[in-house]
Amino acid sequence: MGEETNGCHVLVCTNLDCQARGSEEILAALQQRVAADGLAHVAVKSYLCFGGCQQGPNLVLYPQRTWYAGVQKDDVDDIIIHLKGGPVVSRLTGKVDAPTEELIFQLLDTGLY
Length: 113
Known about the structure:
By secondary structure, the protein is an alpha+beta fold. It has one domain (about 10-110): Glutaredoxin (3-Layer(aba) Sandwich), CATH 3.40.30.10. Helices cover about 35% and strands about 20% of the residues. A four-stranded mixed β-sheet has the order 2-1-3-4, with helices on both faces.
């Protein structure tokens, strides 16, 4: 495993589409695991909407610019491994079109998180 990801926001969409697919449960599970594993460098927060509704639940790791789509509660362990410096969970990436991803990353770059 590599070094832990330095300073990370895990932003979980909790808008209606993602919420209907279980994003609030994923948010709670991530918050619990981050606290239990002592990942002080990680802040897990809800986010209003990323615009990738059809591929949700969506979450973004920022400033790492990793977008996970179609996330299920069973994926939390692999996301935690990534947050500890492990590999990107590639099965959850590349599902949202690149222009949407780039727009969200640009918004986050301006401090909207």
